[in-house]
Amino acid sequence: MKKFFVALAAALALSLGACSTVPGTNQVTVDVHTMQVRITQACVGYGAAFSTAVELRAAGKLSPTEINQITLISNQVTPICDAKTIPSDPTVALTEVTAAVAQLGVLEAAHAIAPKQAASAPVSK
């Protein structure tokens, strides 16, 4: 789960960084290279979150509905992350990948195993 939060934080930070404002307006512009970097880094986060989902499935912890959800996410996001060129609408692509990381993170959190509490030592009198 820690991997997911690190990946999500990185994806969110990247989506906010490296923007510039057009002088005299409130429009934010981002160059193509910056968007490619953001999408690539978001895809790294997606890969980590997807790997965790695969582990949960292999462990038999996912319901058929959750497996279908992961399949839909994969069908939507994998082509973006596997593309050799920047998508025609990089902002939408980045939003889709970031949303996928968040959805997989929620799924992971729902199946997280709470850490075992240390047994308390007997109190001597």
Question: What this model shows, in words?
Answer:
The protein is 66% helix and 3% strand. The protein has helices at 2-16, 32-58, 64-82, 90-110, and strands spanning 20-21, 28-29. The protein is elongated and about 45 Å long. Strands 1-2 form a two-stranded antiparallel ribbon. 25% of the residues are buried. The longest helix is centred in the middle third of the chain and has 27 residues, at 32-58. A hairpin with a 6-residue loop joins β1 (20-21) and β2. With 125 residues, it is mainly alpha-helical.
Q: Tally the helices: what do you get?
A: 4
What is the overall pLDDT average?
Answer: 78
Q: Main sheet, how many strands, which sense, barrel?
A: 2 strands, antiparallel
How many runs of DSSP E, i.e. beta strands?
2
In a nutshell, what does this entry contain?
By secondary structure, this protein is mainly alpha-helical. The chain is built from 4 helices and 2 strands, in the order H-E-E-H-H-H. A hairpin with a 6-residue loop joins strand 1 (20-21) and strand 2 (28-29).
